[in-house]
Amino acid sequence: MFQERKTAMTAKRLKQPNSRHCFVCGVENPVGLQLKIYQIEEGVIETTYTAPEHFQGYPGVLHGGIIATLLDEISGRAHMGDPSQPRFMYTGKLEVIYRRNVPIGQPLRIVGKKLENRGRAAQGWAGIYDEKGNLLAEGTTLLFDIPPHLLPLKDLEELGWKVYPD
Q1: Is-contact 72 139, C-beta < 8 A?
Q2: Ranges for the Thioesterase domain (predicted)?
């Protein structure tokens, strides 16, 4: 089921930009997750990830902090929108529900969705699924726009924020 869904969505997928050094998406971060994130429809994004052994908490189980990191990033990315005029947000609140152990060494599908949009604030949701489609963990976020003077959009390429080829 996981592989079928991935193939069916390929035609609609629009790759989101990555940065050079972000822990989650940084292409040059040797200790980061280096996720490639795709918009699959307006306000819905997804990525896949297979966690390595060095991110485990208990043997065979992904550490809860890494799970929260994945949910935080992907729920916020659902609000990013147009890559040429991205909406950068920071998390004011993250609520995580750990439903089942998230395994290391097995492919995971992580989906993010826009929820509410309230001016400079928004809510997002993300879920982590196993290959069989079981929801393993989910999180909701309260997000706030980063003030433009703190992250001028004209400097994004200098910062390494762009769509990198696969």
Answers
A1: yes
A2: 60-133
User: Taking a C-beta distance cutoff of 8 angstroms, is the pair 102, 65 a contact?
Assistant: no
Q: Do the beta carbons of residue 117 and residue 124 sit within 8 Å? A: no
Average pLDDT over residues 149-156: 74
- Per residue in 105-127, pLDDT tens? 999 999 999 999 999 999 999 99
Q: Which domains does the chain have, with CATH numbers?
A: 2-155 (3.10.129.10)
How far is 140 from 123, CA to CA, in rounded Å? 7
> Cα–Cα distance between 27 and 16 in angstroms, integer?
13
What phi-psi label fits residue 136: left (phi over 0), alpha (psi between -120 and 50 degrees) or beta? alpha
Question: In whole angstroms, how large is the CA radius of gyration of the chain?
Answer: 15
